[in-house]
Amino acid sequence: MSLRTLLLRNLLRQSRITNFAPVVLQNKSYSRNEKYNWNSKRNTAITLLASVVVGSAIKDDQKENTKSDIVEAGEKRPDLPTYRAEEVSKHDSKKSFWVIYRHGVYDVTSFLPTHPGGEQILNAGGLSIEPFWNVYGMHKTKEIYEILESYRIGNLHDDDVADHSDDELWAKEPFRDKRLIVKTAKPFNAEIPPKLQVEHFNTPNELFYVRQHMPVPDINENEHKLTVTIVGKNTTVKEFTMKDLDKFKPVTLNAALMCAGNRRSEMNKVKPVKGLSWTTGAISNAEWRGVALRDLLAHCGLDPDHLDDLDGKHVILTGADTDATGAQFSTSLPLRQALDTVLLATRMNGEPLPPDHGRPLRAVVPCAPAVRSVKWLQSITISTEESSSHWHLKDYRAFNPSKTWETADFSTAPPVYSLPVTSAICDPEDGDTVQVKNGHIEVKGYAYSGGGAKVLRVDVSADGGRSWREARLRTDAAPPARHYAWALWAVEVPARGDRQMEIWVKATDSNFNTQPEKFEDIWNIRGILGNAYHKIKINLKY
Amino acid sequence: MSLRTLLLRNLLRQSRITNFAPVVLQNKSYSRNEKYNWNSKRNTAITLLASVVVGSAIKDDQKENTKSDIVEAGEKRPDLPTYRAEEVSKHDSKKSFWVIYRHGVYDVTSFLPTHPGGEQILNAGGLSIEPFWNVYGMHKTKEIYEILESYRIGNLHDDDVADHSDDELWAKEPFRDKRLIVKTAKPFNAEIPPKLQVEHFNTPNELFYVRQHMPVPDINENEHKLTVTIVGKNTTVKEFTMKDLDKFKPVTLNAALMCAGNRRSEMNKVKPVKGLSWTTGAISNAEWRGVALRDLLAHCGLDPDHLDDLDGKHVILTGADTDATGAQFSTSLPLRQALDTVLLATRMNGEPLPPDHGRPLRAVVPCAPAVRSVKWLQSITISTEESSSHWHLKDYRAFNPSKTWETADFSTAPPVYSLPVTSAICDPEDGDTVQVKNGHIEVKGYAYSGGGAKVLRVDVSADGGRSWREARLRTDAAPPARHYAWALWAVEVPARGDRQMEIWVKATDSNFNTQPEKFEDIWNIRGILGNAYHKIKINLKY
Known about the structure:
Pfam family, one (chains A, B): Oxidored_molyb
Helix content of chain A: 10-25%
Shape of chain A: globular
Distance between the termini of chain A: 52 Å
Main location (chains A, B): mitochondrion
Cofactor (chains A, B): Mo-molybdopterin; heme b
Keywords (chains A, B): Heme, Iron, Metal-binding, Mitochondrion, Molybdenum, Oxidoreductase
Strand order of the largest sheet of chain A: 1-5-4-3-2
Oligomer: homodimer
Protein name (chains A, B): sulfite oxidase
Structural class of chain A: alpha+beta
Largest sheet of chain A: 5 strands, mixed
């Protein structure tokens, strides 16, 4: 085992990470799961968690592994005993926990507490981990294969070896524009290149940043139904087809969507965090069109002015994308906020929603982390409970810089339903060489604030904060306190002979909140809400 | 003239300050003004602007001047010519501008452009400045008398010397609790001592911080009327007595009021700013009770759901407090914000409004700078125009740190209708010596955010930001996005043998906005919105 892998394994042992709720397995016979066909041979993967935890020691997370790495893991080893699947399947508890990978049988009992994905691993007790790794492709790296092999105890009997292919699983992924900067391939996560980001106020659909948790579901629009359940003394359930939704008054809103982890890579430089290593490209803006949630719920009999305990209720949104256990993506938000802001969108920038962005129907929750804007929307439930999914309960919560994975309590931390003010320089990019014209260079970027606030002012400094220049702003004409779009900005910065320049940007929003100078004081274990000043260094030529 | 005064005069000449709109004088015969009796001899004063501009060079603005200072200015000087009042009164234009002070006649033509109060000075052309200085008591300091005397050209004829006393003007000022920390006496501005600030969630009325612009009007509650004007095709005007207002459904809200300049003294340390040198005591919290503005306007026929151009309208609030020209205090805010948040309050913490806090009626505009919460409310006007008062047009607007009085354009800068997240340490205070008990000290303070946001978390550091401890919070139970009260916090900080400790605090609000670390990047000419970390240094004993 390489030193790097040994280091990773020790780190995993030390960091007791439980960022997923336990998922109780309903049916352990995956070969009978009608949703996925496990029977094909090709595997590809990119690590995620490992590379983030170990930082620069791990290969760039955008490279795919070579064939030789794949051959090493799960190969038959004549020096080891052979086990039947039935025997392996008995070892499915925390006291003795075995798994299968291709020809290999592994005793990972001592590894369980250090699994970064938490107790999700328990679903694989006594079974092959391949179907799970087909969904959670970030496992498929040399380093993780090496860790796996360190727990090898034997071979699976030839008659029990199954072919778990992910061909079918990922066969229906939509076409993606080659200009997108890919962070992970399966699931697909990609950001928009900075210079393209500021070319249009409304980001073209094919360039809108993409964040998936799982494969993109392929939905037949003519058969798709949205179920609305209002829990109460007399619980009501109503179903809507896409044609039914077309009958409602169409509402348009111009809104940005931003991942809570946008700019995480900058926070990661201070101290490693867990999550996708977004730079500044996990935000885009569009004109959305559809039905106001408020109108749909009114049709279902929900009258906010005469509702008991309005502030104690939540809107649970569930999508059609599912993980290996069949669990559907789900999250929730407070009812009051949902009534005020949520659009059930069918169109994006004048076109039907693309598959990557939720076709045929998604929630658009302005001003909140985009995780709340559930795609491929299947159901809406009004309840006194929040969503019980692990994505909702064990993630998207913020802590102070001193909280660790051991001391952070996700169950008591408030969920993130809003976003602080942020901004970024998109053109030029860090490291660029820029031609000075007439003693100036032009600098462009974006700014954005959640909670309905508007960006009021953007200031740029090229002298370490000693002086600031106010940028020209381009914003949407939405009313105050209901401002959902981003702002694009541009400013001329004088260049007087220096060969290099460091440029800072900061935005002030309509509540006069502004950004912290550095990431140290806002660092948090999940690397979210990173809104310190964006700073770049460029070279100048005259 | 002392060096200090010379310095001040030069600074004033260099800084062309026009932070007040021109006020056209209606009636120059002040002796006939029925509101004030000028005929008495006593003068007292505290400087304001001068001490702030020159910073530490000027005496502490809380001390009253000695009698010897007063004797120097305006005394008869046998070496100079004598003028009749009629002659002086002809010199009332920018080409030749004379004023009177006691026995002195002064040609201040060349001083006009540098008057920090802007063109307000034009009202005194050819007249005595004493009535004006009786209202704007911040002029009455040794330094300003010296500047005045440097423009001396003669004596006023004995027969024309009048006695302008401010006894009557300030005779009806309410009784003030001696524990308040006075910044200026006339008008009265005082902050609450830090340790008292955190004793009660709702600040006792007698300790609530006080900010006056002018003398406190003495209003007969039984005769007081509130006029509501809705400007439109058919402008409507309605009058309400206090008894009329009692008939509306009472509404209660718990809200903090904070001066936009709270913590200005900390910003002033970076670079001098103009304004009252508040420390952390210009914020308090109370339970307010009265009539919702929305309900009153509905009664007057205003239906927000069927109103043209809701977002283009403003609510102009006018109070009964007036300046020397008779102009009443006035400001405005956007109609939508007003409908959502404004209370017309008659009671404060269960008692009728005290005189200092607006008896019998005031606006309470939560989440906004307290200047918008007009006291002694006399009229409400719904209009497409903002208030035209100088307090509204030429103040309470924010700029980046590089804007100067010359380059800052108040007419295009957006008004401040909200407040960013802030926090302060109240107990212990800076410089205290604290007894360590069981290896800890207890630290307490407040936190607050405008725009309806709730304080979510307060973190304290005693090691320069390397580690942070989360404080216990006490907040109000208001619904999200409509959170108007402050939060009080407390935390135990370990003390392990150090003799000194520097403590920092920062708050995070429900939009996950947090505070900038230092004042440099948020500095602005008026010293408002100063929400960088509050930091104190204390001594420890064991």
